[in-house]
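Hi F.,

I've been meaning to write this up properly since the lab meeting, where we talked about keeping a consistent format for the predictions we share between groups. The idea is simple: the sequence comes first, exactly as it goes in, then the structure tokens exactly as they come out, then a line or two of notes. No screenshots and no reformatting. I'm using this chain as the first example so we have something concrete to point to.
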Amino acid sequence: MSLKTPVKNLKATERGINQNLFLVTVGVTIVAMIMMTVAFFSRGAFPPDKMSMFYLGVVIVYSFHKELLRWLGEDHVERQGEYFVYGWIGLTTSLYVLDFITRGYFSLSPHGEKLFALREIASLTVEILIIFVLTRGLKILKVIWEHRA
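Output, unedited:
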């Protein structure tokens, strides 16, 4: 049996895993966005979500698994991860604009206490952007590596 068959089987298995990881990441993204948006609009009635670290872990696993597929020689690795970046940028920008238009209404509790939901959403968005840039960097390294060989 040639080496191509095990590699081909490995690619097929990993491709299936990556599709499942994408669906899991979509689900967790939707939950995280809803929880963070509710925390923002509730003005302190809901506690800040505590799933940012978990969410980042899910995104990192999905992103780097996708890059591993690329390094395995997978010809067609879909660029679905960009949707997470666009979604977070859109949500964060919208909430900042809304908070600006309302003169900081959603940044203060009904008792006048400073709230940090928007800052937490912005921090998570920047972290998602960093993951995106790192995975793009890995793709660029792969292209450079292939052209040198």
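Notes:
The chain has a mean pLDDT of 88.
The chain has one domain: 4-69+79-148.

If this format works for you, I'll send the rest the same way.

G.
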